[in-house]
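Task card 7
Instruction: Convert sequence to structure tokens.
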Amino acid sequence: MSDEVHDGGCQCGAVRYRVKGPLRGVINCHCTMCQRLHGSAGAHSKAKKASISILEDRGLKWYATSERARRGFCGECSSTLFWEPVGQDATGIVAGTLDQPTGLKTIGHIFVGEKPDFYELTDDVPQFEGSSDGKLEGDYL
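Output:
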């Protein structure tokens, strides 16, 4: 495990967490579910479950968004915080909830086939019509 430590949390402070160890680079998800949850694309990092400690959980709630995953959010301020896929030993972390500086870089775009029409992707990181299916570094940690 690396010496990296990253803290983060929701808008109101009712959820705070710490990640001890590496974070995956940011993947921007353009799926319709992320659009509804975030108002646009969802920017997600990821870490091993064992690396994440919840420091304050009074607002933490979980919602099963599908049979494949659940999402963690703050029940007090509604901040979206986590995406936890079933069967993986890792949790997606909404990158905007991490305290700055993160040192992270965007490494890809997924579900660009569902991207809304009100923005364009103009960077040169890899794009995938759907899932990246493990083709991006750290997809499955």
